Amino acid sequence: MTKDFKNLRKEYERAFLDETKVNSDPFLQFDLWFTEALQANVDEPNAMVLSTANLSGEVSARVVLLKGLELGMFTFFTHYGSRKGIVLAENPRAALTFHWKEVERQVRVEGIVTRISRAASRAYFSSRPRDSRISAMISPQSCRIPDRAFLEALRKGALLDLGDKEPECPPDWGGYQLKPGLIEFWQGREHRLHDRIVYKRKGNAWTIERLAP
């Protein structure tokens, strides 16, 4: 099958980004853009692509949800035994990408990932809807399974076992936090002359540079 996508084009004209006017703190700049994405009704603005690479250099990417930004750390949750969990145990360097098409913006984050505390993982787990907790409890994430019926049978068995009890946070499920060394803000501009402003960590401070599109 051959498909021609050469004529799929869109001109970006909504806004601009000036390195002399951005916030000196990249996290405050991110908060500003995230708030504007919410105001623009961006669908799931906390959805982000998590990119990882194992020690052989094989790269993988998937969409996960940002669940917190505290003390300069981007937080997300998953199974430690999933593919991403296994790869992060080998190589903790990772990247996050947010794409907010409604406001013609993108944010890239690069840094080091570590696990959050067990207490914090349990606290977040207990805040999730009961059905979501059950799914996390029964899913052998990233493992090969025979069919959908296998998952449904696991869920049915968990419901019978639990009865009125609440699901507990599985030992192989929890949170990660990414400490960035680089954060880039991209604003689409006309004629493909986009604005790119990058923050790079230097000790406890940040430098700000403009990049060519």
Molecular structure report:
This protein is α+β, with helices and mostly antiparallel strands and 213 residues long. It has a domain of 141 residues: Roll (Pnp Oxidase, Chain A). Helix content is 26%, strand content 34%. The protein contains 5 helices and 9 strands. Strands 1, 2, 3, 4, 5, 6, 7, 8 and 9 form a 9-stranded antiparallel sheet that branches. A hairpin with a 2-residue loop joins β3 and β4. The model has no long low-confidence stretch (mean pLDDT 95).
Provide the gyration radius in Å.
20 Å
Q: What structural category do the secondary elements indicate?
A: alpha+beta
CATH topology term of the domain at 26-125 and 171-211:
Pnp Oxidase, Chain A
Distance between the termini: 32 Å
How would a textbook summarize the main sheet?
9 strands, antiparallel
* Beta-strand fraction estimate: 25-35%
| Helix count from the secondary structure assignment | 5
The average pLDDT score comes to 95
Based on the coordinates given, report the CATH architecture of the domain at 26-125 and 171-211.
Answer: Roll
Stretches where pLDDT is under 50 for at least 5 consecutive residues are none
Give the CATH H-level superfamily of the domain at 26-125 and 171-211: Electron Transport, Fmn-binding Protein, Chain A
Judging from the principal axes of the Cα atoms, what is the shape? globular
Using the coordinates above, name the CATH class of the domain at 26-125 and 171-211. Answer: Mainly Beta
Order of helices and strands: HEEEEHEEHHHEEE
* Strand segment tally: 9
